[in-house]
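With this grant's support, we have settled on a layout for protein records. An illustrative entry appears below exactly as we store it:
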Amino acid sequence: MIDADHEARAVLARGTAEVEEVYRRFGEGLRGADGELDRAALGRLVFDDPDSLHALESIVHPAVRPRILAAIEGAENGAAEAVIIEAIKLVEGGLADVCDEVWLVTCATDEQLQRLIGRGSDRADAIARIQAQGDITERLRPAASRVIDTSGAAEATRRRVLDAYEAALAPQ
């Protein structure tokens, strides 16, 4: 599996040209005492301001895309059964074009909020992140070959995903 968020973290690691550009654009105050990017502070800046979010994406996305394409090539060369890309900006970033299928994963907004809080986001930051996505479900639905609702129990979601995966791999 290729995780675009993981790749974005690597792109913004200490010492990269991209993280230095983030400091130039958004301020040295984002550089932590350990030299690492203060991601929480950056999130507070960009998720409240669409222009700042766009500016951040213009720094990060051009560096993430080639990393993802290289990972796809590596998986294909390794004869992977399937290559899965987890990316919130798959469609907007043009990566949907290299995919056989695009899965749109949804859940109820209140559940999404609780999940973000459960992963350590404070309530205000979680709300800002959700609002920054806008009506992502309706915007991306036309590009989706499958829509998977992840609301509810984790085991039921796991079963829905496995069923969809098996169907995707089944001979046509």
Observations:
- The longest helix spans residues 50-77.
- DSSP finds eight helices and four strands in the chain.
